[in-house]
Structure formats: structure tokens, C-alpha cells
Amino acid sequence: MNRKQLIIITVIAFFVGAAGSIILGRLILPSLATVRGMSWVNRLVSNAPIVVNRREEVQFTEGVDLSDLVKRASNITVNIYAKGEANFLGNGIVVTSDGLIFTATEVIGSRSEVRVGLNDGSLHDALVHATDPKSNLAILTIEANNLSTTQFDNAANLPPGQRVVVLGQGNAEFVRSFNTGFVTSSVSNSSSLTQVYSSETFTQTIGINVPTGREFVGGPVLALNGRVIGMVTADRILIAENLQTALNSYLKSGKISRPYFGISYLNLSASLAEVKGLAKPGALVVAVNRGSPAEKAGLRPNDLIVEIDGQGLDRMSLERVLNQRGLGAMKLKVIRADQQLDLTAILTEK
Question: Which stretch is the leader sequence (predicted)?
């Protein structure tokens, strides 16, 4: 007998055996059980349906050791204390190896000096050097060298469902509180038909389902790649794009310089613009500040700004465009009563 014949016989035997089992269990044994003295056969009969169970297991892994991520991120997170008091004020983020630290203005209040506790437990006197005119960001400095530093990532790239980690207060050397959760609302989904923005305030943010109480204010929000995508403030996450431009400005000029434009507006995506009956997405002007660069450029309420310096506002909000700009001329393409206008605003510091 060759191998092929053996396989054929085995397959035939399998199906014959299965068929015989069904015939025996469903036809022959029930009939025998009706014969007088053969009722015990019922114990061999099963009335349950024949079910084939298929079990699928899906294992989900994000490929990240959270304990290692928290350990590394703890080295760039600091405690901030009131000077001369054992009073925890909040947290900060180390952004340069020689002691430049970001925190929230609500952490320092009106103080010009505080104390900073590094992750190794060492304490340093710190000076408040600058605050951001468009957000509640403050910059501190301490005298230090070779500190661990952070890298920023774009919060605008984070979709809902992305896991994030938030670090907070540390009460012992190399030990720090943390929470983890998910992005619930992206930067691009933070607008609505009723939310009025100011060109002089950073409002766009990400929503996360992570508790961010007082012990986390001033601390970093990190993506799973270990990069900072925001900082916790009292009322929102200040996204990394705004932190990066503040750092660039401070390193260049010793202060946080932001261009003044001077409007209130609705940020309309393509879908929101369609709801409003507008042909294009953009920034719909609600009000213009008197004497502002916007007023001097000729902007009026109900003007729709659709383009800035050749860049359409269909994929990038006015806030993000202004965040990337410096002072000087800014060309606007505006739709007013179905007519397209070209205007130029000269951005200045307020």
C-alpha cells in the first residue's frame, strides 16, 4: 500500500466514522431506547445541537514599555515650589540642557522667583524670565548643566484614539505621578459654529480623557514616542506647536514675541462652511479691533479669510498660521459679499 492509498483510506474512514456517529446517536439509539428494557440507552443519547465553535483571539499591543517611558519623561519634568516655603506650586518641563524650563503662568502666579526640584531631588533657585502674550506659558531658568531635555512633536497629527501619557508631581527622588489615556478630540476637531476665537489667544487644543488636576498642571503630555505634544494648564492642553515657536522666539530675542492681528472670528472647516452657506472654508471675521493691523488692512465683520500668503485655510487654521508667522506684511485673500479681495496686513507687536 502506497502513501496516496493510505491518505485516501484515512479520509474515507474519518467521514464514515463521523456519519456513523451521527446515525447511531440520532437514529438508532433513540429507537432502541423505546424498546422495553432498553431505556438505559437514553443515557447515551444527546439532544444538544452539534455546534462547531471557532475562537479568535486578537492581541493588541502598542509596542511601548510605559514604565520605561515614564522613567525617561520623569527626567524632563520638575517640581516648582514657592521660594522660602515648602509649598508645591506645580510642575515644569526642561527644554534646554542648561536650565530653561517651561511652566504654566497659573503655577507661578505673580512671582518672579521660585524654586525648582529636579527628578534627582536637587533644588535650584529659578528666575521667571518671560511669559507668552497669547497663552498661559511662562519661562524659568535655573543654573544647571547637562540636563535631560525634551523634543516636541506635532499635536495636530494626533488622531482620536491615540494613547498619551501625562506626568505630574514627584514626592521622592526618581518617582513621579503619571496618568495615561487617549486623545478624545483632535486639534482639527476643536472648532464649532458657535466658538468665537481671538487672534490674540491660543485656543486650539486636544481633548484627552486623563484627569489633569493640580498635581499635573505645568507637566508634559507625551505621545508614545516619548516626545512632548503639549503641556497641562488649568483649562486646556497647550499644544506643542505653540511651545516650539515660543522657544524659538525666546532663544532668538530673550522674550516671547507674537504678532498682533486684532480680530475675533469663527474657524470654519469645509463642512462647517457648507452649513453656514459659504463656498469655502476659512476664518469668518466676527469683529475687528479698533486700530489693529486687521482694521488698517481694511478687514470688516463678515469677511471670510480664505488664504494667507498663498496658503489656503482649508487644511490649516488661522491660529496655526499666525503661530508660525513673525512680524511684517501678511497678504490676505478675502471673500466679501461674493467678491474676492486682496488685502495686506502689517503685523506688529501689541
Answer: none
